[in-house]
Amino acid sequence: MAKIEGLHHVTAIAGEPQANINFYTGVLGLRLVKVTVNFDDPTTYHLYYGDGQGHPGTIMTFFLWPGAMRGRIGTGQLTVTSFAVPERSLPYWRKRLHKRGVDFEEATSDFGEEMLFLRDADGLQLELISCSNADPDRIWERGPVPTEHAIRGFHHVTLSENGYERTALLLSQTLGFKQIAKQGNRFRYAVAKAAPSTIADLVCAPEGRSGRVAVGTVHHVAWRTATNEEQVRWRGTLTKLEYDVTPIIDRQYFHSIYFREPGGVLFEIATDPPGFATDETVEHLGTSLKLPPWLEKARPELERLLPRIELPRIAGGKADEAA
Ligand code: ZN
C-alpha cells in the first residue's frame, strides 16, 4: 500500500520578492533553501523556505507575482498555515513580532493549543502553535532565531470547505488519514502518529464566500510520499477514482502529481527524493539562482528579467539579539 507521510510543502502566492524574503527569513527565521523560477512561468521567481536541510514537512514555497492583484481568502482553499514552535516559546515570539512591527493576535485553538495568529507581508494567514512534540531537528540552526525558539516545521494546515464530507472521505478512505479530533465545525485528520506536520484540519463553512487564488493566498498543498514507485501507485489509485490527475511532473527537487480535491483545494503528491541538495550542497542551499537544465540556456535573459533581490546573509551560528 502506498502511504502519505504527512505534509511535504505548502505553496502560496506573494507580491514583492524582497518583502517575502525579509519576512520568512528575517522575521520567522526560516532558511531560504532554494532560489529558482516558476518552471511554468520562468520570468518569475519560485522561492522555497524551510529548515537547515530542506526537509519535507518544513517547506513553505512562494510564487512571486510583483504588482499582481490580491486574492481573496475563502472556502475551497487552504486558509491557514500553522508552524510548530516549542512550548514556552510564545513569549519570545510575542516580543520578536512586536519589535519588528508585525501585528498578531493571541489565541487558543479549538483543540486547546496556545498560539499566535499573524499575517505575512501579503496578508497570508499564519499561526505559530506552541507544542511539545515537534521534531527539534527540523530547525534552521544558523538563522536569526535562537535554536531553542526556532520554528520546527509545520504543525498543520486548515482547509476551509463549503461541505466537508467528500473531502473527509478522500482523506480517510483514500489517503490514509484518520479523524483524531472534532470541535464544532472543525475536524482534525492526521496520518501516522498525528505528530506535527502530519495534520490537516477541515473546517466546514457552508456559508463561507469562496476564495480567489492570487497574491496573499495559498496555491496548493503537497503531501509526502516516500518513493517514485509509491507515487506511480498513487496516480493509479486516484485515476481509478476518477480524479483528474496530471502526469508525473519533474520538479527537479521532487516529482509531483496534482489533482483537485472535491472541495476545490489543489492537492499535490510529491516524492521525498531527490531533495534540495541536488544542484547545490546543503551548505550552499539558497545562495544563488538555480535553474533546471532545460532553462539553463536562457539564464542570461532570465537574470535580466527577474527583479533584483538581496539574499539573506547566513548568521554563521549567531542568533540576533534576544527577540
Ligand atoms: Zn508544489
Written description of the protein model:
The protein has 323 residues and is of the alpha+beta class. It has one domain: Roll (2,3-Dihydroxybiphenyl 1,2-Dioxygenase, domain 1), CATH 3.10.180.10. It is built from 6 helices and 16 strands. The protein has helices at 17-27, 90-99, 165-174, 228-240, 293-296, 299-305; strands at 6-14, 31-38, 41-50, 59-64, 77-86, 104-108, 114-119, 125-131, 154-161, 178-183, 186-190, 199-204, 218-225, 249-250, 254-260, 266-274. An 8-stranded mixed β-sheet has the order 2-3-4-1-13-16-15-14. The protein has an 8-stranded mixed β-sheet with strand order 6-7-8-5-9-12-11-10, covered by helices on one side. A hairpin with a 5-residue loop joins strand 7 and strand 8. The longest helix is centred in the last third of the chain and has 13 residues, at 228-240. The N and C termini lie far apart (46 Å). The model has no long low-confidence stretch (mean pLDDT 95). The structure holds zinc ion (ZN). Residues 9, 11, 220, 222, 268 line the site of zinc ion.
Shape: globular
How many separate domains? 1
Total strands: the figure is 16
CATH superfamily: 2,3-Dihydroxybiphenyl 1,2-Dioxygenase, domain 1
Low-confidence residue ranges = none
The proportion of residues forming helix, as a percent range, comes to 10-25%
Question: What order do the SSEs take from the amino end to the carboxyl end, as H and E?
Answer: EHEEEEHEEEEHEEEEHEEEHH
The helix-and-strand class reads alpha+beta
Mean pLDDT rating: 95
Assembly category: single chain
Q: Helical region count?
A: 6
Radius of gyration (Å): 19 Å
Which ligands occur here? zinc ion
Q: What's the architecture in CATH terms?
A: Roll
Q: Tell me the span between the first and last alpha carbons.
A: 46 Å
CATH level 1 class label: Alpha Beta
